Amino acid sequence: MTTNLKVEWDAPQVELLQICRRVVSSEMSPDAAFALIKNIKKTNTSVSSLLTDVLWLIDMEISMEKKNEDTLKRFNEFLALISNQIVPDDVLKLELDILGANEHATRSRVVKMKTKLYFKQLKFNLLREESEGYAKLITELLDTNNSCVSTTLTKLHRLIGQFNVDPNRVLDIILECFEASPQRRRFFISLLADFKASADDLCNILGFKFTFYQQNGDTPSSLYDIAAILCSERVVD
């Protein structure tokens, strides 16, 4: 697993997971882990909730991987320390199989939790969230010396992958750049086709733009021009 993968878990939750796994693997004593988590709690009031999810995942890993008695003992010692100090005892008993929770009811959550932790990546939808990625995207699209659609498409795919920019937002920016450079009609029409932009997605984006301008002022003529071009090219109906 690559270390630069962006996951939806918060950084404190990942840190808590690392601490708990070090306890289970005998790299850290339960007492040291408890002290460390208490320090984290001083600056993060949501530690109790975050730690509950982490403990549930550790509990499932121990159960599924059939850890030895020493591992179970260390984990139980750790749970005894945090019980009612970090996480309420009744919550632990409700969530953790090792403390008597309903194994069948909780086991079905393991796939979703591990998918969220390891594989689900963030998509940055706003320019302020990933300014570098969107800046490079706009620069690429507005480069008048760039007339090769296949080369541009390859670069767009690389930017989407490298910066995790949202493909729907990329489509919106393609339309924005098309609106700013209508004289490059052939280029943008071909790019939209190769980008596999669906007519429904394009209609939704255009509809949102028209609605926004109608509610907030005059609709620019350039937007009507782009809509007309897309209709005449039968990109949208």
UniProtKB/TrEMBL annotation:
One of its GO terms (biological process) is mRNA export from nucleus. GO terms for cellular component: THO complex part of transcription export complex. Signal peptide: none annotated. InterPro entries: Tho2, THOC2_N. Residues 21-233 form the THO complex subunit 2 N-terminal domain. GO terms for molecular function: mRNA binding. It comes from the Eukaryota. This is THO complex subunit 2. It comes from Parascaris univalens (Nematode worm).
